[in-house]
C-alpha cells in the first residue's frame, strides 16, 4: 500500500501523524511511504530521519494526497484539504465530526473512508487513540488555566497553590474521565482545592481512592454545577458522549453566577464543548471573554507540545496503521472490533450513528 503523511496545516499544529519509527515498520512490511517535506520538523523529526528509514519526501501536500491509498495524519482535514481527499482513499486521523457539519458534508462527498482516532473503542469502552491526547490536554488545561487566572491575562488574579496564610485556588473539573483525572492530578499537585463531577459513580469511586483528600468528588447535576461555579476560580470541561456533541452543562445564563475573572478551559471543545458559550479558538488567539468570564477553548491543545504529543499519539496509532496497510481497511476493520468502531464515513455514507443524531439527518447508516 502507498501511505502518505502530510504536514498539518491547522493553526499552530506541529504534531505529525507518523514518526520515523512508523515508517521503518511500514517499509519493513513492504509498503511505500511518502512524507511531505518538513512535516515532522515541529516534532523534532527531520526529512533526513525519514529518508534514512526508507520514506520518500514530496514537496507539496497535493502530491502526498494524490499518490496515497491511505493518509495518516493528526487533525481533521481543514478546508484547503477537502478537495485533495480522493474517492476510496482511507483517511486515518482525528475527525470530531459532531462538531462540524461542514467537515462532515465535505468528507461525505469526497467518497473517502474516514476512520476516526477518537471513536476507536476497546471492549471495555475505553478509547485507546484518544487517551494519550486527553492525558496531554488534561495536564495542559491546568497549566493554561493557571496562566489565564493571572490578572494581566484577564483572570481573577489567583495563584492556584495559594501561599501560607492564604487559601489555595479552587478548580472545578467537569468529567472524571481521562482529561478530568489528569487535570485533577495536576491541579492537586499545585496545591489547589479540586472538585470533580461525573455521572459515572465508578469513575468517582476511582478518583476518591487514588487522589489526595483535597480532591473532592460530587455527582454531576445542574444543582451542583450551579453551586460550584460560584466559588471556583478555574473550571475545566472534560465531558464526553462518544462521537456525539457534548452536553451544555454550563449555559450562557449561568455565566452571570461566576465571579469576574473566572477562567473556563473547555477541553471538550472538539466535540462542541460542554459550555454553551464555547467556540473553537486557536493557539494564536486562545481566549475570549463573555460576561467577564475568560473562555479558553483551543481545539488542538496537544499541538502546542508536539515533542511529547507526537510520540504519545504515534505509539498507539502505529499498530492500527500497520493492520490497515497489511490487510486493507475492510478486512482490518472486520477482524478488529475496536478499529471497526473507528469507521465514521464509508464512501459517502455515515457509519457512526451518533453523527446522524447530532445533525438530525436521516441518511441511511452504512
Ligand atoms: N481540545 C483538545 O485539544 C482535546 C480535547 N479532547 C476532548 O476532551 C473530551 C474528554 O475526553 P476524555 O477525557 O478522553 O473522555 P472520557 O470518555 O475519558 O471522559 C469523559 C467523561 O465525561 C463523563 N460525563 C458524561 N456526561 C457527563 C455529565 N453530564 N457530567 C459530568 N461528566 C459527564 C463520562 O462519564 C466520562 O467519565 C473529549 O471531547 C475529547 O475529544 C481530548 C484531547 C485534546
Ligand atoms: C484529540 C484532539 O482533538 C487532539 O489531540 O487535537
Ligand atoms: Mg459574571
From TrEMBL:
Supply one GO BP term. Answer: L-alanine catabolic process
- Residues that hold NAD(+) according to the record: 134, 198, 203, 220, 239-240, 267-270, 298-301
The leader peptide range reads none
Residue positions binding substrate: 15, 75
Could you list this entry's UniProt keywords, alphabetically sorted. NAD, Nucleotide-binding, Oxidoreductase
Query: What region holds the Alanine dehydrogenase/pyridine nucleotide transhydrogenase N-terminal domain?
Result: 4-137
Report the coiled-coil segments: none
Q: Which GO terms describe its molecular function?
A: alanine dehydrogenase activity; nucleotide binding
Per UniProt, what is one Pfam family of this protein? AlaDh_PNT_N
Query: What residues make up the catalytic site?
Result: 96, 270
Q: What is its EC number?
A: 1.4.1.1
Q: Which PROSITE patterns match?
A: ALADH_PNT_2
- Keyword Nucleotide-binding in record: yes
Catalysed reaction, written as an equation: L-alanine + NAD(+) + H2O = pyruvate + NH4(+) + NADH + H(+)
Q: Which GO terms describe its cellular component?
A: plasma membrane
Q: Does the keyword NAD apply?
A: yes
| Superkingdom classification of source | Bacteria
State the family named in the UniProt similarity comment for this chain.
Answer: Belongs to the AlaDH/PNT family.
Database matches in PANTHER family: ALANINE DEHYDROGENASE
User: What protein am I looking at?
Assistant: Alanine dehydrogenase
Species source reads Muriicola soli
Gene for this protein? Answer: ald
